[in-house]
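Troubleshooting: if your tokenizer reports a length mismatch, compare your output against this known-good record of 394 residues.
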Amino acid sequence: MPRICGSIAIVAFAACGLVACGSGKQGGVPAQGGVPEVGIVTIQPQQAVLTAELPGRTLPYEVSDVRPQVNGILKKRLFTEGSIVQAGQPLYQIDDTLYQAAYSSAKAQLANAKAALTTAKLKADRYVSLREQKSISQQDYDDAQAALQQALANVEQQQANVETARITLGYTRIAAPITGKIGRSYLTQGALVEANQDQVLATIQTLDPIYVDMNQSSSELLALRRAVAHDANTAPTTANVTLTLDDGTAYPQQGTLQFQEVSVDTTTATVTLRAQFPNPDGVLLPGMFVRARIIEGIEPNALLVPQRGVSRDERGNATALIVDGDGVVQIRKLTVAQTVGTNWLVKHGIDPGDRVIVEGLQYARAGQKANAVAFVARDDKAAPVAATPAEGSK
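Known-good structure output:
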């Protein structure tokens, strides 16, 4: 009998120790009357930046494949692979011996035509006076005038031939069609090239500015248009866009989204949005995957509820528990629009001044009382937020 009494005393002592340890913890059940203590956040209207985050891929602003326009042997490459070239800058030199000879021949034929024109003109002028003196027949006079017109036409034709030969000769020096970054050369000195061949010599891409293409459903696009239209600080045809790179760092330059450049995919009912970004340092390269965040607008009186205070019922509806003025827990069904940071933007179900439970939800029951205390994030949870010296690199 003494042994049984001793065991009961030990169990009772352990139970008292557990109650004492749990009573001082936020979200626990205090010993006084069994009323749970819950951490609450008082909801007040505040300004919120509304954004939409979409996957995107970078594309060059301009692309040009360099191809020869005449046949010949490549004699020289006149650029450094991977460098920035300017429009009109020489890139390749094709052997121009035959084209130089054709140009010289065309000029000689033009000189011959001009000499023939001089003879024809002198003869025609002389026949005018002879005709007035009735020293020649009308037929001879007409023949002289016709010969003059033929000589004039021949000069014009030879001038065109000279211009054609000059242009063709110029094609032996292949120039950059656009300004941009040129890649590697696919052919080397000594290679035989042909006019308009399939094999490109090199590719030039304009990377400043640069495009970012994003996919979005057509319904979300309509919502984005409405949001931007209500923002007085944003032009009705553009929206501001920021980028997060694949390694998680933030791209320092801000871009603009152009709604005029929207195309619809008829098979998926999605649209491709195109944003333009400055890229002065060449950080963005074609083909990179990024996360684009579109700043839709500003909500001046947003009701933001922490995500930790919102749960879902069996039907998937968003709900929250609040503590009313009498200290009684009430359940609210919410209509949420989107996330804003770590919060939900609530459209219906929450009023300014409502006290939403964010800690101790496991102890709170609708219709029962709760001891509401202001929620304060613990130091171990707040530390990562405070330590943000590289915020711009997130």
